[in-house]
Please model this.
Amino acid sequence: MDREYCVNFEPRENEELKLLIERYARREDIPQGTYYVKPGDILREISYLYTGQSAHTMFNGDGQEKLSYILTDGWFLAEGLFSDGADIRIAERYSWARTPLTLYRIDRNVYRTLIEKPVFRNALINSISAKRAYLQRELESVILERTKDRLKKLFIMLSDPSSSADGEWYPLSHDYYHRDIASIIGSNRVTVSRFVSELAQEGFLRVVNKRIQISKDHITDC
Model:
């Protein structure tokens, strides 16, 4: 399973890009836990995530949350804003700071300057392309796969062979509460807890000191 499609978009270090954005864009610091974008908000600027983690979620009519992805250093938000000549976009997701965030805001005038720079242009295209590929895989998963299968694939993507103590059981690279996992796969906490118990009985995973570990044999099977 390609880790590129994991819900956590890993940091992208690019010092040349950072220096360029620092020079032209406007800095804004967001406190941890703040919902800084809500559905219906008017977006007038592209945001560059300089430091921190930003979660992007949606809710259905019953209040059930679905996590789209978690962005980290080096990613953009609303990066396609000015590409079609538009000046504004209406937000469709909640964006909130999982950690203290430092953003750099890029308005249209700054965008016109930066888009002429290859390092900025390439980073923007890469950000759009990676999100599109991830969301396409998510859509296919929701349509074609059972919830339990989506849970297994998530665990496989998160499994970290390099941290295995015995080479047989792989811990997860990121630890989530059951409610967080439910948000990622579009389910609920009770269902996730039930499936975790079932997968433990099937030998797919085990729980050691409250941390999930995935069986190497079952990863090979999948």
